[in-house]
């Protein structure tokens, strides 16, 4: 029996992994098995207990600490994840582990995989996000990984530039586009009614900590909230932040503000189907989440991207970048709502694939594991550099 593990720690990550799991599971047989491992914020009431949104068979639950007030907290969380996942991999003897992206707990899981000689199949490597710790974590996991499933051609080239052999780097696009096509199937009225709102003009928002900056989170959120107050005729549907350092503080500020601002509606989690369905009909998407960069343009909806968290990602013409101060955010929102910019958005073609990524990723993983020829003694792939 050859087994692989798929690890998910957050709502956003599961949304991207879900279509891959759905295509992997039909390959299960007496000789091949797929274990879904749930950890992180999925198991936390504070972050919405999003394990309830997982509609696949769950094989293991690994609770870890989620304190995020300081760098020491994050390191302690990583240490706990490293120990627990090392134990899991030693007992499970997996033929491979599927990891996505760039979160700090995934770095600990990747180290655990390396220490137990468990091959890593990595999704979403090669992207750049200069304003977040995710940047170096993502590239670190790339160097630990055996198979690479990138979301765009620029990222494929970067992974090869990091010394990974082109034969193990596959640009099948982003599984988020699969979700855009197949999952966002609620009507506007259905999606709004599901969160107790009547039909209205609204924006969908997410604001995460900018983990490579030392600026005041309170100041950033106050500027963000002041911009929201400038548009009383628009309802702002905000999903809470993740468990990065500073995320809990952002969520506290949002909860406090919701009591005072009539057109602000804060939710711990909306679930993938409802979140993407709301995105489909939004006037614009606001904040600094990768979903504004990757999924939103596929709906031809404007994105107002605040600050540097996503700086460096491949972007479409439907994205407006702005600074973190209120005036910049307000000006960007006005541009996003203009007739001229809506026309620009209507012509956008997503650079993140055709919506068939998950099927191709699952098939390649099954093929490689079934062949049984993985050699973790990777040779560095040198390219000629003009310096």
From TrEMBL:
The name under which this protein is listed is UDP-N-acetylglucosamine 2-epimerase domain-containing protein
Q: Which NCBIfam families match?
A: NeuC_NnaA
* UDP-N-acetylglucosamine 2-epimerase domain residues: 29-365
In the record, biological process GO terms are: UDP-N-acetylglucosamine metabolic process
User: Which GO terms label this protein's molecular function in UniProt?
Assistant: hydrolase activity, hydrolyzing O-glycosyl compounds
Organism, as annotated: Anaerovibrio lipolyticus
């Amino acid at each position: 029996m050859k087994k692989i593990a798929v690890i998910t720690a957050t709502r956003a990550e599961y949304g991207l992994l879900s279509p891959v799991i759905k295509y992997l599971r039909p390959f299960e047989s007496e000789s091949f098995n797929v274990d879904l491992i749930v950890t992180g914020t999925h198991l936390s009431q504070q972050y919405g207990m999003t394990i309830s949104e997982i509609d696949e068979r769950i094989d293991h639950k690994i609770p870890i600490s989620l304190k995020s007030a300081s760098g020491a907290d994050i390191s302690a969380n990583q240490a706990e994840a490293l120990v627990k996942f090392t134990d899991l991999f030693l007992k499970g003897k997996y033929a491979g582990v599927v990891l996505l992206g760039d979160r700090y707990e995934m770095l600990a899981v990747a180290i655990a995989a390396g220490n137990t000689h468990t091959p890593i199949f990595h999704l979403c490597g090669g992207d750049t996000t200069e304003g977040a710790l995710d940047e170096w974590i993502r590239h670190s996991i790339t160097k630990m990984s055996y198979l690479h499933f990138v979301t765009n051609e620029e990222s494929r080239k970067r992974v090869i530039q990091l010394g990974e052999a082109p034969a193990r780097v596959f640009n099948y696009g982003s599984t988020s586009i699969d979700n855009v096509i197949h999952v966002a199937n609620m009507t506007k009225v259905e999606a709004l009614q599901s969160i107790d709102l009547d039909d209205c003009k609204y924006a969908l928002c997410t604001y995460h900590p900018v983990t490579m900056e030392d600026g005041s989170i309170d100041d950033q959120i106050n500027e963000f909230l002041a911009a929201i107050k400038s548009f009383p005729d628009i309802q702002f549907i905000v999903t809470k932040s993740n468990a990065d350092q500073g995320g809990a503080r952002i969520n506290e500020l949002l909860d406090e503000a919701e009591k005072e601002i009539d057109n602000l509606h804060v939710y711990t989690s909306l679930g993938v189907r409802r979140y993407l369905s709301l995105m489909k009909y939004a006037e614009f998407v606001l904040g600094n989440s990768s979903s504004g960069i990757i999924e939103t343009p596929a709906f031809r909806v404007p994105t107002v991207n605040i600050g540097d968290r996503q700086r460096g990602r491949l972007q479409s013409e439907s994205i407006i970048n702005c600074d973190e101060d209120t005036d910049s955010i307000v000006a960007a929102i006005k541009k996003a709502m203009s007739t001229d910019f809506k026309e620009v958005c209507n012509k956008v073609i997503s650079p993140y694939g055709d919506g068939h990524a998950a099927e191709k990723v699952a098939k390649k993983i099954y093929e490689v594991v079934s062949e049984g020829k993985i050699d973790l003694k990777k040779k560095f792939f040198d390219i000629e550099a003009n310096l």
